[in-house]
């Protein structure tokens, strides 16, 4: 059980930079693979300063996850959901994932897609928190597929939950493959094969590849 240390007055520091440093460690090594000593060294803190600023390792991890979501995953999902068709949404998201999972400026894979997969029983609240976040994003995908059915982009007989689960499994698999060393081209090939299984209208809307690149150039990564 992670204990919370008494709070004091932390020295002035750049919170965003500290969260970036912690995110790098948690992303690369996982929650249990990252120690307080690792965190204090990377963030330039003493243990009392870290506890005063963030409360506990668990509290810090929760804040790091939100930091990651705000700067990357939610932006990518929102950009995908704003595409002009369901197929364009899926294509945008898969291509963006292939690029960001292999971005050399960050650890491989997706922090949320593969976070906290192997945690001890005492750290199950962390597992549950990450699962809750993934579920929220999943529900957004399901709702978009339901809209596609109403708009006749997908057959009415399609099970939106099953289709969302299928493509979610593809994305999570792409994340694991990136961690194992797959290249962007490898993952785009996977994305193209997954797109070939799309059971509805394949309307791409406006130039999606170009828009993915523009969004990544503006900082939508991770």
Note down, in words, how this protein is organized:
It holds the Pfam family TetR_N. InterPro entries: Homeodomain-like_sf, HTH_TetR, Tet_transcr_reg_TetR-rel_C_sf. Residues 200-222 are annotated as: Disordered. The mean pLDDT is 86. By secondary structure, the protein is an all-alpha fold. It has 9 helices and no strands. It has a single domain (15-217), classed as Tetracycline Repressor, domain 2, CATH 1.10.357.10. The chain is 64% helix and 0% strand. It has helices spanning 15-29, 36-43, 47-54, 57-81, 86-101, 124-150, 160-179, 184-196, 208-217.
Outline of the structure:
The protein has nine helices and no strands.
Distance, first to last CA:
29 Å
* CATH uppermost class: Mainly Alpha
Query: What is the CATH fold-level name?
Result: Tetracycline Repressor, domain 2
The chain-level mean pLDDT equals 86
Low-confidence parts lasting 5 or more residues at pLDDT below 50? Answer: none
Topology as H/E string? HHHHHHHHH
Name the shape in a single word: elongated
Could you give the topology of this structure?
Blueprint (H helix, E strand, L loop, with lengths): L14 H15 L6 H8 L3 H8 L2 H25 L4 H16 L22 H27 L9 H20 L4 H13 L11 H10 L5
Helix pairs in contact: 1-2, 1-4, 4-5, 4-6, 5-7, 5-8, 5-9, 6-7, 7-8
